[in-house]
């Protein structure tokens, strides 16, 4: 899936190796029901990466709980916590606001006319 993501960002003019970071959160172990994200294991590494990269955008799957893989909802929890920490840190002060691009993925069924953006 990381390759597919890199192709998409490359198509839009980004150099994935410079602009995209694929994270393997600590709770993601390939099991059916994974453990909950933790601050030290999942949130703080993401927060540190955000301080290092100073992103303009963060993308995350916005699957309501129960509509897709359990991991998507847990990633959303960890990303939300890291974005909150980042918005309050000194490195983010005075910078243009962080934008979060949420997307529905293949696990969420919807009619194409409900899409706001299509590629």
Question: Which secondary structure elements does this structure contain, and how are they paired or packed?
Answer:
Elements: H1 2-11, H2 16-19, H3 39-53, E1 57-61, H4 70-88, E2 99-103
Parallel strand pairs: 1-2
Helix pairs in contact: 3-4
Give your account of this protein's structure:
By secondary structure, the chain is mostly helical. Helix content is 40%, strand content 8%. It has 4 helices and 2 strands, in the order H-H-H-E-H-E. It has helices spanning 2-11, 16-19, 39-53, 70-88, and strands at residues 57-61, 99-103. It has a two-stranded parallel ribbon with strand order 1-2. The longest helix has 19 residues, at 70-88. The two termini are 18 Å apart. The model has no long low-confidence stretch (mean pLDDT 78).
Distance between the termini: 18 Å
- Overall shape: it is globular
Largest sheet strand order: 1-2
Unreliable residue stretches: none
Helix segment tally: 4
What series of H and E elements makes up the topology?
HHHEHE
Query: What is the percent of helical residues?
Result: 40-55%
Query: What percentage of the residues does DSSP assign to strands (E)?
Result: 5-15%
Strand elements, count: 2
| Biggest sheet details | 2 strands, parallel
Helix- and strand-based class? mainly alpha
Overall mean pLDDT stands at 78
């Amino acid at each position: 899936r990381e390759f597919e993501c890199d192709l998409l960002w490359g198509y839009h003019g980004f150099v994935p190796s410079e602009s995209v970071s694929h994270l393997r959160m600590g709770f993601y172990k390939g099991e059916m029901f994974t453990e909950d994200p933790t601050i030290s294991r999942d949130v703080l590494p993401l927060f540190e990466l955000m301080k290092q990269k100073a992103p303009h955008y963060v993308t995350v799957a916005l699957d309501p709980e129960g509509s897709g893989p359990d991991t998507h909802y847990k990633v959303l929890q960890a990303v939300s916590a890291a974005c909150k920490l980042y918005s309050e840190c000194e490195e983010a002060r005075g910078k243009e606001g962080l934008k979060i691009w949420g997307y529905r993925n293949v696990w969420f069924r919807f009619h194409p006319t409900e899409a706001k953006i299509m590629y």
